[in-house]
């Protein structure tokens, strides 16, 4: 089936496009909008965005592959992104990452079989004063920061994340 | 306790809402600003000695003076809210807790320089900041602080939030402009500078969040007052983000020129129990590392240069004796490699090689020639690239080797790292490549 924005996204799309003197400039926020609607940025999604913004698909591809927040394949409903850069590295950030690997039984960079979780290592997220920290991108596009995490309490953290999973869409089936 | 400016509202409940902001006196300086002309405002900005808070420290009043004066040309304001320099977490506070302050600063800047459109370029991960700004902008439109004929003074000014999508290099001002145009954030050659050819090929003022947030105070109290809260050529209070192995990490406001020691002891609560200060980075990961002997250095662009480093973003990372400087430099090389936009070969390849060699030394697989090899490699990056991203690795790596050379040599000689691991359960020191 051909892709189409929901009415809500369509409103947001129009609002975004109106901010700029040309449609190319709307590409970054529109791709994020498309990702929250369609789960991930497939070639099909890029083509749809290209059509909507009247851009050459090659331009959309070059931007979509440059920025790290666009997922070029489906990810888990809960995408855990652990910062390990500077202050987080000094404050048990790697341990936190490792504990997630252990509990989720995946390596960093992987997704659980049921597409519940993806685990990534990311660079400084401007939360260095509350290190260690991780960020979650939920499959509906919501982003949540979890700061000042005590790695020893990882199981409690995971329980909280688990509790939200059932309400969220599976990115593989969002388009 | 000094009076608070930039952080005045941080402890006030819901100061991100317009009514609370107004109750606190917000937007009340606009009429005063609107009674001043371009020359008068630029003169106050120059007098204030405000230096750009994005890291380079360019005098803000001077930069404003570069903007063309023609009134019929479309000119843009772009606020740099891409905050990504490792160790830096101050702009986020302003956007989340006091977004109207930034908006008020934008309106004044637009008035001063005849700008009709502004974009706040926020890194996409900061969704809360983006939401707070979007709501605040909507409130400001409803109250007539934005839009057509602001306060009936004939200023037409539209302000938008532009969410980016994860690319550190978009913090560099011309990478930022590319990102705002929807393209990969590959920095442009300068000149021409953005003030002449910026976004959509029009004159563009690019300033950091904290820089613009200072404008309402400067115009309210006058440039001289701002300058008095600082030292020579460095005016005004600023936000210092303190992190690392300290007791009370956080964002604190203090005057320019305060010493690192005072920040650490009075605000940061000192080093943690059992932690001795081994080194600190004064303004984000691209600054040279300093030793405890430099604790009395003053936070200012010239003073920190004299101390052998730089002011950068003014967010300081403190490290204790358990920190391996080889590992840290490898980790930073990984960062700069990962975030290189790829258009200049010395940066793209050099940062990657530096990471590989530093990581090998850390893993106990270094050879005696490796240190010279690294020096060679980073010399090839310095000054040979379009933007300063490559230099941002060269400067710290050189400083780690210079100040902690023995640590590097010991790693090579003993074929192991003597410091506690960052990873506990696995035996491998894996930094995903
Ligand atoms: C690699 C690189 C990354 C940068 N990142 C940021 C950033 O995240 N935020 C910022 O305000 N300035 C950043 N800058 C500095 C900007 O290029 C520019 O100097 C600044 O936005 C100007 O504003 P100011 O004069 O108010 O500081 C960066 C520069 C470089 C070379
Ligand atoms: S180092 Fe982790 S948020 Fe900055």
End-to-end gap of chain B: 47 Å
Share in β-strands of chain B: 5-15%
Q: What is the radius of gyration of chain B computed over CA atoms, rounded to a whole number of angstroms?
A: 22 Å
Write down the Rg of chain A: 17 Å
Order of helices and strands of chain A: HHHHEHHEEEH
CATH class value of the largest domain in chain A: Alpha Beta
CATH topology of the largest domain in chain A, which one?
Glutaredoxin
Point out poorly predicted stretches of chain A: none
Second CATH tier, the architecture of the largest domain in chain B = 3-Layer(aba) Sandwich
H/E series of chain B = HHHHEHHEHEEHEHHEEHEHEHHHHH
Shape, per Cα inertia axes of chain B: globular
> Any guess at the CATH architecture of the largest domain in chain A?
3-Layer(aba) Sandwich
**What kind of assembly state do the chains in view correspond to?**
heterodimer
Helix content of chain A: 40-55%
Q: Record the strand order, biggest sheet of chain A.
A: 2-1-3-4
Q: How much strand content do the residues of chain A show?
A: 5-15%
Q: What's the count of strands of chain A? A: 4
- Main structural class of chain A: alpha+beta
Structural class of chain B: alpha/beta
**Could you please say which CATH topology of the largest domain in chain B applies here?**
Rossmann fold
Approximate helicity band of chain B: 40-55%
In short:
Chain A is an alpha+beta fold and 175 residues long.
